[in-house]
From TrEMBL:
<dbReference type="Pfam" id="PF22848">
    <property type="entry name" value="ASD1_dom"/>
</dbReference>
<keyword id="KW-0119">Carbohydrate metabolism</keyword>
<dbReference type="Pfam" id="PF06964">
    <property type="entry name" value="Alpha-L-AF_C"/>
</dbReference>
<dbReference type="InterPro" id="IPR010720">
    <property type="entry name" value="Alpha-L-AF_C"/>
</dbReference>
<dbReference type="GO" id="GO:0046556">
    <property type="term" value="F:alpha-L-arabinofuranosidase activity"/>
</dbReference>
<keyword id="KW-0378">Hydrolase</keyword>
<protein>
    <recommendedName>
        <fullName>non-reducing end alpha-L-arabinofuranosidase</fullName>
        <ecNumber>3.2.1.55</ecNumber>
    </recommendedName>
</protein>
<dbReference type="GO" id="GO:0000272">
    <property type="term" value="P:polysaccharide catabolic process"/>
</dbReference>
<feature type="domain" description="Alpha-L-arabinofuranosidase C-terminal">
    <location>
        <begin position="291"/>
        <end position="494"/>
    </location>
</feature>
<dbReference type="InterPro" id="IPR013780">
    <property type="entry name" value="Glyco_hydro_b"/>
</dbReference>
<comment type="subunit">
    <text>Homohexamer; trimer of dimers.</text>
</comment>
<comment type="similarity">
    <text>Belongs to the glycosyl hydrolase 51 family.</text>
</comment>
<keyword id="KW-0326">Glycosidase</keyword>
<dbReference type="InterPro" id="IPR055235">
    <property type="entry name" value="ASD1_cat"/>
</dbReference>
<dbReference type="GO" id="GO:0046373">
    <property type="term" value="P:L-arabinose metabolic process"/>
</dbReference>
<dbReference type="InterPro" id="IPR017853">
    <property type="entry name" value="GH"/>
</dbReference>
Length: 502
């Protein structure tokens, strides 16, 4: 067992916990929508065809916002196809995922689902094959009052009140060569600026997200953000960030340190945004919408879109099965997002159901929780109040991908009203338990309310429909507070949550 010293202090406040950190993502991709959230043949389906079991799991997961309808899908999407009488809606080929889109679910159905799930929608407009006018039309359909074409269409389609959607994504991953209608940074920056400007003529209070590059590994990274923000700074509030991680060639050590990469990613994007700001000499700061993040094994066969003449509806795509190590990485990525709450103002776990997802379903059958469900649900439930940076004095280990990395990573939150404090910590060691010795004397009077650990001697263990509870977080009975010092033992490859209160 190796000792690690941590310090909790309210003076280490980074900023408030933001509910939007706990967002997710529903794309028309694979079985996320069809047989995921929507499955009229399912025994729990409501009158609209929404699975109540999935709604229940979504609420249990504690999702705050849901980004919709893509993703790559949005870059070829005609939102008008998905409104009005279902039997009159056209089927279309979705070029992004080589699938047939039946348009059974569209904006109105999604908004009904979002209402039932208790989530805030985050709507994306198509800036791949479309432009300013279609974005304005969709905005009018969603948020218009009455007396104009699209607002009246929405009313005729059954939604009398405007949806009042606040957050809008101006396209998706527009630098990606795989993207339909991909663009240069300058082309996209201009289009985002013009679209944002026009949307704000309708409603100056909209919160708009410009696409950042598709990831830190892209050759566009950095320069893309600089050019796009130079063009669109005044018209947007956020720049998006996307990052996916996976264990490559058995290099578990690097994989477990993925959050160090996310830390650098956030810091690089904020530095670029602030450099543009300095150049423009304006007060306004651009924040990050980390609206796609997760573990995703992109090299697996099921990550490749189908080929051939048969364009299937809702094929099995990107249905990664997550193990214990994946859950520890997801927990650590949440630690990173929380630690950057001063600049990351929204985030979306990509995605919600079936597609690289915490929730899995069988068509017409069972639903279950993947391992990554647990850290997300716990962080969403227990991160309350302020985020506190945790000072960590831990041994490091060498990783092939990210250089030296700390064996333990952690962040804390504290509710200033009640004093309730939660420590979230991961042990990245492959073999050794850690003894966390936490100096919490700056927060007097705390005792352990409860402590849980997610770990398994076999870190490759994955949940199935038959057993999704064997690696749910278990009580950690080693946690105790004495004289303002918390000690807790955490096993190798583990995600841990210690709740402290008066
Ligand atoms: O989340 C899966 C895909 O990953 C999204 O459609 C796209 O935006 C990203 O490349």
């Amino acid at each position: 067992m190796f000792p690690v010293r941590l310090t909790l202090d309210p003076a280490f406040r980074v900023g408030p916990v933001r509910r939007r950190t706990f967002g997710s993502f529903v794309e028309h991709l694979g079985r996320c929508v069809y047989t995921g959230i929507h499955d009229p043949a399912h025994p729990t389906a409501d009158a609209d065809g929404f699975r109540k079991d999935v709604l229940e799991l979504t609420r249990e997961l504690g999702v705050s916002t849901v980004r919709y309808p893509g993703g790559n899908f949005v870059s070829g999407y005609r939102w008008e196809d998905g409104v009005g009488p279902v039997e009159q809606r056209p089927a279309r080929r979705d070029l992004a995922w080589h699938s047939l889109e039946p348009n059974t679910v569209g904006v109105d159905e999604f908004m009904r689902w979002a209402d039932l799930a208790g989530v805030e929608p985050m709507m994306a407009v198509n800036l791949g094959t479309r432009g300013v006018q279609e974005a304005l039309d969709l905005l009018e359909y969603c948020n218009g009052g009455a007396g104009t074409l699209y607002a009246d269409q929405r009313r005729a389609n059954g939604a009398a009140d405007p949806y009042d959607i606040r957050m809008w994504c101006l396209g998706n991953e527009m630098d990606g060569p795989w993207q339909i209608g991909s663009k240069t940074a300058y082309e996209y920056g201009r289009l985002a600026a013009e679209t944002g400007r026009a949307m704000r003529m309708v409603d100056p209070g909209l919160e708009l997200v410009a696409c950042g590059s598709s990831g830190v590994v892209m050759p566009t990274f950095g320069e893309w953000e600089r050019i796009v923000l130079t063009e669109a700074y005044e018209q947007v509030d956020y720049v998006s960030a996307h990052a996916y991680y996976w264990e490559e060639d058995g290099d578990l050590g690097s994989f477990l340190a993925s959050a160090t990469d996310m830390d650098h990613f956030v810091e690089a994007v904020t530095a670029t945004a602030d450099a543009v700001r300095a150049h423009k000499k304006v007060d306004k700061r651009i924040h990050i919408s980390f609206d796609e993040w997760n573990v995703w094994y992109q090299k697996r066969a099921e990550s490749k879109p189908p080929t051939g003449d048969d364009w299937p509806v809702a094929p099995v795509l990107l249905e990664d099965r997550y193990n214990v190590a994946d859950a520890v990485v997801v927990g650590n990525l949440l630690i990173s997002l929380l630690r950057h709450t001063d600049r990351v103002h929204a985030a979306s776990l990509a995605q919600l159901v079936n597609v690289i997802a915490p929730i899995m379903t069988e068509p017409g059958g069972r639903s279950w929780k993947q391992t990554i469900f647990h850290p997300f649900a716990q962080a969403s439930r227990h991160a309350v109040g302020d985020v506190l940076q945790v000072a960590i004095d831990a041994p490091t280990y060498e990783t092939a991908r990210y250089g030296d990395a700390s064996l333990v990573d952690a962040v804390a939150t504290r509710d200033p009203e009640t004093g309730a404090t939660t420590l979230f910590a991961v042990n990245r060691s492959l073999t050794e338990p850690a003894l966390l010795e936490v100096d919490a004397r700056a927060l007097p009077g705390l005792r352990v309310l409860d402590a849980t650990t997610l770990a398994n001697p076999d870190h490759t263990w994955s949940a199935t429909a038959d057993d999704d509870t064997s690696v749910a977080p278990r009580p950690n009975t080693t946690a105790e507070v004495r004289d303002g010092r918390l000690t807790v033992q955490v096993p190798p490859v583990s995600w841990n949550v210690v709740r402290l209160g008066a």
